[in-house]
Amino acid sequence: MCGIALVLGEGAEREQALFASMLAAISPRGEVDEVLHDDAALLGTSRLRIVDREHAVQPWTSEDGRWALCFNGEVFNHGDLRTQLHAEGRRTRSESDTEVVLETVLAWGEDALLRMRGEFAFALIERDSRRVFLARDPVGVKPLYWAHAGGRLHVASEVKALVPLGVRVHEVPPGHCGWAAPDSPPDLHPYIDLYRLGEGQPELADVDEAAAAVRTTLTDAVRIRVDTDLRVGVVLSGGLDSSLTLLLVRELHPDCVAFTVGAEGSEDLAYARRLTADLGVEHVVVPVRPRELGLGDVREAMRVSELTEYGDIINAVVSQRLFAAVHEAGVKVVLTGDGSDELFGGYAMYHRIGDADRRRLFLHKIAHLSRTELQRVDRTSMGHRVEARVPFLDVTMLDLAMRIPQELKHRDGYEKWIVRHAFADVLPDYVQARHKNPMSHSSGLHERIRLFRPLFPRLYRSLGYDCAAPLQRDFSEVLREHDYDLDAAVDAARTPRDLTPAEHARDLAGALRWNLASLVRRPARTTGP
């Protein structure tokens, strides 16, 4: 994983100071900064060394020097793709997935993107013409942004690197690619349509068939993500998704460790401690007392995460503490259970919306993960030089989930029922029986952070991130306001709207009541579930 920064166009060499600030902004994403300069191109990466650590130096150049690649992410099937390249007579000089990305795009063009199983964003530069090919993974696990200023094209992994330009910043959407030139905006188009996932394929309505497919597909998605000689961490809340991820990582990798963040007495710590003890897995607990979290923590989480919705920002405060501890432990690769709720109906909104709109809601949530849940995971992990991998969002899982009917996703009073059923023989009963509880709530930290929500708009504006997107109310709130009419909610969300002063006041009053009451409550004992 890396951060990337580029300035392309005549006179680029005069922007050395700006380029240095761009590279500094994305430097926390890696361990070493690597650059390639000429008169009309400034290319840089901040590289987190994971695959072929000694040789995969970036920007990676083709053997003839014509092409240069700035790459962020991992392509987990790079070994298979390299074998295919060799069969076609193409040479490679390393064992890195970085080189495979460059060579497969040169060999197969845009079709290479559909052969990659990974989480990636990259810029491939034709050095003579300064044209650049931009691409992002299907669901947007890895970020990519661009802006035009001074007749030059600027590209970076994070918004904060482009804020100093003082111009509009644009996102390369998930599953999109296209060519750009220094003097014209990128001509981007989808190479995969997230709104047509599973379309034209048979529905998996049979319970046994669906369960077998979920088990096989998820196990394989985890397998390719633990193919490393490094120690692998798992972000463990003790809920269904993270517990299942830990069970599979423990089975497929010889050296794993679990990390859990939360207040003493919280649900997450209790469940996670019980599971790791039962499995005999090393467990790093990141205890956080609610009163330890202050405005500085909120501002830093907002600065790092660049998030635009309130709920995601609150979760980012918790994630910041977690990934700082992962880095401190010397772990560079972790797996998370993110994405399962969006695929298999983990949120209450899925059960309140009309049957005719449910599939469209699933697809809407998946298509917007790149700026919500996945953005939180990417920024807060990479900001601490940790690579977070998300097996539930492997492209094979995305396609499978859209072929499984709602009645298998919510059944017998349980969300994500088919996932529980698929792994019923290996999941402990207490994990199978645990219902979904949002991250900041189950960690016991939500209400403390909620105290600062009225200050979010001012903090957000001070960071300059409104050059890319405004701060706005959570889509779940918009949907509820429109009585779960999806068309009305989507239409309303096209014009993002912040919370009103009255809503902030009511929110603050509720948070104050909870925090004052907590001062007189006796501390809860830490017990198992």
UniProtKB/TrEMBL annotation:
The record marks 338 as: Important for beta-aspartyl-AMP intermediate formation. It catalyses: L-aspartate + L-glutamine + ATP + H2O = L-asparagine + L-glutamate + AMP + diphosphate + H(+). Its EC number is 6.3.5.4. GO terms for molecular function: asparagine synthase (glutamine-hydrolyzing) activity; ATP binding. ATP binds at residue 261. Belongs to the asparagine synthetase family. This is asparagine synthase (glutamine-hydrolyzing).
